From TrEMBL, chain A:
Residues 1-27 form the signal peptide. GO terms for biological process: amino acid transport. It comes from the Bacteria. Belongs to the leucine-binding protein family. Residues 30-361 form the Leucine-binding protein domain. Keywords: Amino-acid transport, Receptor, Signal, Transport. This is Extracellular ligand-binding receptor. It comes from Verminephrobacter eiseniae (strain EF01-2).
Automatic annotation (TrEMBL), chain B:
Its main location: membrane. This is Inner-membrane translocator. GO terms for molecular function: branched-chain amino acid transmembrane transporter activity. The chain crosses the membrane at residues 6-24, 31-51, 57-76, 132-150, 218-244, 264-282. The keyword Nucleus does not apply. It holds the Pfam family BPD_transp_2. It comes from the Bacteria. GO terms for cellular component: plasma membrane. It is found in: Cell membrane. It is a multi-pass membrane protein. InterPro entries: ABC_transp_permease, LivM-like. PANTHER family: HIGH-AFFINITY BRANCHED-CHAIN AMINO ACID TRANSPORT PROTEIN BRAE, HIGH-AFFINITY BRANCHED-CHAIN AMINO ACID TRANSPORT SYSTEM PERMEASE. CDD domains: TM_PBP1_LivM_like (cd06581).
Length: 373, 295
């Protein structure tokens, strides 16, 4: 009897999970949009930062009367930094919530399979955090607000070459992002006549990177280029200082990510680049609103892209006067063709739905924060 | 909703096949395989690589199963001189080595981006039917493999490996070659799991290194421990329960209206709670293994 009760309880949980429909209040008088973000796992800090940007966008759209006379409702799902969970979340958004567009994810290796599924289903995909150039090949329903790594690499090469450095050693994480940066940077840098002396793709989650750093140091470069996730970056910054490798400059690629968890004294004076953060009058207003709402400043440069994605989708829906996926895509094309004024600058799409001239910032870490240089 | 339900049943079925594979090793044989996901990874990658080379899908599946079985043989032999717990660590290492290879050998595995655009099995069928047919195939395989696994467990081989688990010296005295038993156990579990890996790649249209993370193996272990290790019905119950939690949390978030940042924590917390409750209250799982009493 006891066992039967257990079984009944389990079956009830399973059935509830499978059959319950979304809360009706959310479903009726609103237009729904989906987002899949890493809210747990190693990229959770940035995932939460993007979510804050997105929610601010939603509030603002709704405060200004919503979209097509309805409220905009955003359904945010957790990807747990795992492709299976992300795909399940995307499937829920596409088939149960029937959203016309999905924003996200952050890691390229998760965005790619997820976006591929969405494009196949005819749901618009808005990329706000992934830089793999393979995003470009996804097809018609995929759009990028953020610059892809080829643009980022060209920017970093121009900046580092302009400093007079000719021999560089590179350390980046061994994943889709790191592999793309390492290969792309070397390609562009050597085209100008520079040389990448050593290249290390480090394995994430280690307690020490001394071996990797010593391996780089043996090449005796003019400067080091590094990119690393928060906690790993903290270790790399500390150990490079302890090993005395700071006699030559260190250059951070996507700097807000690199310094987010490092104590200030270990990165003081460091320079680097990042995807363009909030800019101009719009950007200032956004930063003030963000701070007021969340009692905290930006954790990364990515939240502005989430905010812009929401506002641009709202504009696209209004422009197309409909809320189907086809309407969103038509609207995005039309809004993107004219240039949309976002907090990350003017957003215009090329024929492949990718942002033309994505912005990048040159930064310096000074007095405990990142400042433009 | 209907599409999503189909998907949930399919993916649940795929995990059930992997868990059945692990159950043959860990449940019946008592082998602490902490690198079990490597077999599924081989299945998934073999299917993806075969597609990239233009081979038919069944060839990729067969290749995956053959390679996984071969790896199973090696892992089984690897343990000859290792005690059970050390062998467990060695299996974890093997899976990590495979993941590192998958991550770095761009020319073969697509590196960190993995292999995407692997076509589904019934892609040329009209819309709802392609997914329904695939679900029917997966669930049919689950039923068949569950039946086979239960039979295997109750048959001569199953009794022998249970004896190996409980009383290795006694099994040796009775004339069983323990090394051969162990190797065959790992190999049969590997073949079943590689099949599930292939199905995973076909369902997700993707094979990537994240799928080979050690955490995936422990998801399977959790399913076994919650449901009942060593008993087919228990394994299936564990899969249903854990998949239900995974599927339920996003809906609970929408229904109860709490923030999405809490939903992830809730999912992790619920799974941890279920596992802890099971460990404390029902150590052998919800449906414990039934050993045949001497009649």
């Amino acid at each position: 009897m006891k066992k039967r009760n257990w079984l009944a309880a389990c079956a009830a949980v399973a059935l509830q999970g499978a059959l319950c429909t979304p809360w009706p209040a959310l479903a009726q008088a609103s237009i729904r949009i989906g987002a899949v973000l890493p809210l747990t796992g190693p990229s959770a800090t940035i995932g939460e930062d993007i979510r804050r940007g997105i929610m601010l966008g939603v509030d603002e759209v709704n405060a200004n009367g919503g979209v097509l006379g309805k409220k905009l409702a955003l359904i945010v799902e957790d990807s747990a930094n795992n492709p299976t969970t992300a795909l399940t979340a995307a499937r829920k958004l596409a088939t149960v919530d029937k959203v016309p567009a999905v924003i996200g994810e952050y890691s390229s290796s998760i965005t790619l399979p997820m976006a591929q599924y969405l494009v196949k289903e005819g749901v618009a995909h808005v990329n706000i955090g992934s830089s793999s150039t393979k995003v470009r090949a996804l097809g018609g329903a995929a759009y990028s607000l953020i610059g892809l790594e080829d643009a980022g690499n060209r920017h970093a090469v121009r900046d580092t070459y302009g400093m007079g450095w000719r021999k560089i050693a590179v350390i980046v994480p061994n994943n889709a992002f790191g592999q793309g940066v390492a290969e792309g940077f070397r390609h562009e840098f050597e085209k100008l006549g520079g040389k990448v002396l050593a290249q290390v793709l480090y394995a994430g989650g280690q307690s020490s990177y001394r071996r990797e750093l010593q391996q780089l140091a043996r090449s005796k470069p003019d400067a080091y280029l590094y990119s690393a996730y928060g906690q790993e970056s903290a270790v790399i910054n500390r150990e490079s200082k302890e090993l005395g490798l700071r006699q030559v400059p260190w250059y951070a690629y996507i700097m807000s990510m690199c310094v987010s968890d490092t104590p200030a004294e270990n990165v003081e004076g460091q320079i680097g680049m990042d995807v363009g953060a909030a800019k101009g009058e719009l950007g200032k207003a956004y930063e003030t609103a963000f701070r007021a709402r969340h009692k905290e400043g930006f954790k990364s440069a990515f939240n502005g892209y989430g905010y812009d994605a929401v506002r641009m989708l709202a504009a696209a829906l209004t422009q197309a006067k409909g809320s189907s996926s086809a309407d969103v895509q038509r609207g995005l094309k039309e809004v993107g063709a004219g240039g949309f004024a976002g907090v990350t600058g003017t957003i215009a799409f090329d024929a492949e739905g990718q942002r033309i001239d994505p912005p990048y910032d040159n930064l310096r870490y000074q007095g405990g924060r990142l400042v433009p240089r | 909703m209907f599409d999503f339900l189909t998907y949930l049943l399919t993916i649940g079925g795929i995990y059930a096949i992997m868990a059945l594979g692990l159950n043959i090793q860990a449940g019946y044989g008592g082998l602490l395989n902490f690198g079990h996901i490597a077999f599924a990874g081989i299945g998934a990658y073999a299917t993806g690589i075969a597609h990239a080379r233009g081979w038919p899908v069944p060839a990729g599946m067969a290749l995956g199963m053959a390679l996984a079985t071969a790896l199973g043989w090696c892992i089984g032999r690897l343990g000859r001189r290792l005690a059970a717990d050390y062998w467990g660590i060695a299996t974890l290492a093997v899976a990590e080595i495979l993941r590192t290879v998958a991550l770095n050998e761009d020319w073969l595995t697509g590196g960190a981006n993995g292999i995407s655009a692997i076509p589904g099995l019934f892609e040329n069928q009209p819309r709802p039917w392609n997914e329904l047919l695939f679900m029917a195939l997966v669930l049919g395989l689950v039923a068949l493999l569950a039946w086979l696994s239960a039979r295997l467990g109750d048959g001569r081989f199953g009794r022998a490996i249970r004896l190996m688990r409980e009383q290795p010296q006694l099994a040796a005295c009775m004339g069983y070659d323990l090394q051969s038993l162990k190797t065959r156990t790992v190999m049969s579990g590997a073949a079943v799991t590689a099949l599930a890996g292939s199905l995973y790649a076909l369902q997700m249209n993707f094979a990537g290194p994240e799928f080979l993370l050690a955490a995936e193996t422990f998801v399977l272990w959790t399913m076994l421990m919650v449901g009942g290790i060593g008993r087919t019905a228990g394994v299936l119950l564990g899969v249903v329960l854990l998949q239900a939690v995974h599927a339920f949390v996003p809906f609970a978030k929408d229904m109860l209206g709490f923030d999405s940042d809490r939903a992830g924590a809730l999912r992790l917390g619920m799974i941890g709670l279920i596992l802890l409750a099971c460990l404390l209250l029902r150590r052998e799982g919800l449906l414990p293994e039934k050993l045949r009493a001497s009649a």
